[in-house]
Design a protein that fits this description.
Shape: globular
Structural class: alpha+beta
Number of helices: 2
Helix content: 10-25%
Strand content: 35-45%
Order of helices and strands: HEEEEEEEEH
Largest sheet: 6 strands, antiparallel
Length: 133
């Protein structure tokens, strides 16, 4: 009698485990969320951070990992290398691939274009003088 219930219990357990394995879906990798729709290359165009104190992440090419933050380099003028339109679902955004000399090295990454302003960086003193006029 005990073996009958034991074999019945093991059968139910095995069928539940098989059903659970068949219904589970593998996780979607993060890079699958963003896809490149369009790209464009640029020469000799310069940009700097538009707003100080606002977090502006620099991303890797697949947009899965941050490689820096523009807040850490507020006075750097960046060279625009290319742009890409990224799509996530129905939303689209333009990202710029920028690079600039930071400290002892060269920092580059992909940044949303809303964080940048075209032109070379001007010192805070010269910006203050322009606002006073």
């Amino acid at each position: 009698m005990k073996t009958k219930y034991l074999s019945l219990g093991l059968g139910i357990l095995a069928s539940l485990a098989t059903a659970a394995m068949l219904q589970s879906t593998p996780p979607v990798p993060a890079q699958a969320a963003y896809r490149v729709v369009k790209t464009k290359k640029y020469n000799n165009q310069y940009y700097f951070q538009k707003t100080w104190g606002k977090s502006a992440s620099m991303w890797n090419r697949s947009h899965t990992q941050t490689v820096g933050n523009l807040n850490n380099y507020p006075t750097v003028t960046y060279n625009l290398k290319s742009s890409a339109v990224l799509q996530n679902g129905r939303k689209r955004a333009v990202y710029y691939h920028i690079g600039g000399f930071v400290g002892n090295g060269y920092k580059y990454g992909w940044v949303w274009r809303g964080y940048l302003k075209r032109g070379a960086f001007e010192s805070a003193a010269s910006l203050y003088e322009k606002k006073r006029r």
